[in-house]
Amino acid sequence: MREATLKVFRGTDYETGEFKTYKVPVEDGMVVLDAIHYIQKEIDPDVAVRWNCKAAKCGSCSAEVNGKPALMCKTRMDHFASDTEIQVQPLKTFPLVKDLVTNVAWNYEVNKKITPFTPAKDADWTFFQEDIERVQEFRKCIECFLCQDVCHVLRDHNRKDAFIGPRFLVRTAGLEMHPLDKANRIESLKDHGGIGFCNITKCCTEVCPEDIHITDNAIIPLKERVVDEFYDPVMMLLKKIFGKKQK
Amino acid sequence: MNQTKSALAPQKPLSTERRDIWWLEPALVAIGFGLFIIYATWRAFENNFYEIGPYLSPFYSPKIVLDWWKFSPALLILWVPAGFRATCYYYRKAYYRAYFLSPPACGVGGINALGLSQGKKYCGESTFPLVIQNIHRYMLYLAIAVLGFLWYDAILACIWQNQLRIGVGSIIFIANCLFLSAYTFGCHVFRHLVGGKLDCFSCSQTAKTQFSLWEAVTKFNEHHMFWAWVSLFSVAITDFYVRLIASHSISDLTLIGPPL
Ligand code: SF4
Ligand code: SF4
Ligand code: FES
Ligand code: FES
Fold first, then answer.
1. Residue of A181, A203, B118, B126 with fewest CB within 10 Å of its CB?
2. Buried b (16+ CB within 10 A) or exposed e, B42-61
3. ipTM summary value
4. In terms of domains, do A87 and A175 share one?
5. How far does chain A reach from its first CA to its final CA, in angstroms?
6. What is the pTM of this model?
7. Ligand 4 pocket, B192 CB below 6 A?
8. Which pLDDT score, from 0 to 100, does residue B4 have?
9. Among candidate residues A40, A68, A102, the one where a domain is terminated
């Protein structure tokens, strides 16, 4: 049976933690999460890993495999040549708890600050597929936070103080484009959400396991809505003259 | 649990655990743009071999002749397509990665946008100078006008001595305009303006029409990167072809109509 070599990060902080090498037998259809489970069962029972569904739907098993943010349960072992090491490490952008587990609580704090869905009191709840299709794409999000992890604004520049990150731009887009929503989040998107920090370099889109076109369908359309309200003098003037369009 | 103790220090520029050839894409982009910029600059300043028979090079169109302007007429117009592409959402991605290493590739340590403010806090496109990228819609309006002139040139490229004439050049001119249109009308701003800004696509007859437009633009927008490159090459090839004929290096093959 083929054997794979895994280098897994072990430790409770990056300074003292280190990579430990394991040999794992590879079976057909095996994914990286299976290999970690093998290590837990047969070699080191105290390897910490967070997971739930093993079906790429709960968003728990996010990690970095050979330097790329990925779901461990969606990364197949046969994707790697048999003579190479597979390096598995925790998400870099969030504080480490232990081994492969990070603390992603910051994301939930950010989420709370977004104005929730706000329909009119007397809303007519009939709407058509074409009105909701854009929003449905965003609703596929499984909150794996891989996009948050890879985004250089958070990862390299650590601007968690000023930028909500792609996941929450996706959520905001889903609310802003909803045909029944009446709230306006554009100003807060510019000032507190920090949408201008995103330089549309698309790494979030590259890693999203749900194939959400984060940059093209959520962020850029939102950036254009911000331009309408804050950077386009003609549009701003028209709005002044004719009044804000009812949402 | 101590939440802050192990937050990782920002990734160092160009450091990564990736093992694939992540640098290949930014390197190709840097070379591709570099070659185009060098060629276009040379041609814009050359101020020669841009017009022959029914053909006018796209670098010099529309041709603006002013008595007091002593330099190449290309300089009066090239800032429009240059500004349009420089503020395009796709090109921004490409050059932020390839030239400003912000970031060079995903999961590879980057430097601050523009590389000017390293050490200071990163602000991306939220502050000067990059906040200027928001003028892209105005560049789009101008670019559509220029595209109109290029289509006019493409029609003129099919007429010679008041007769229909199709040469290899005419085909190149028309193909170039088709590629430029696919690029221009797949613009993210265009997609927003024609319908993307609406929240409800079925709420009125106008909204329904806008929805159809938005769907059509989306088809081109999905391949915006592809059209950005194809049209970049096609403009350069069209200009180069005109230069070859105007400098009498080759002659234009006539397919239909009177010879040149
Ligand atoms: S496109 Fe924007 S949000 Fe997405 S990873 Fe890049 S900078 Fe971050
Ligand atoms: S948008 Fe995609 S990458 Fe980001 S949290 Fe949702 S599913 Fe994960
Ligand atoms: S375990 Fe649920 S997404 Fe991987
Ligand atoms: S976004 Fe590329 S041309 Fe407008």
1. B118
2. ebbeeeebbebbbbbbbbbb
3. 0.95
4. no
5. 62
6. 0.95
7. no
8. 38
9. A102
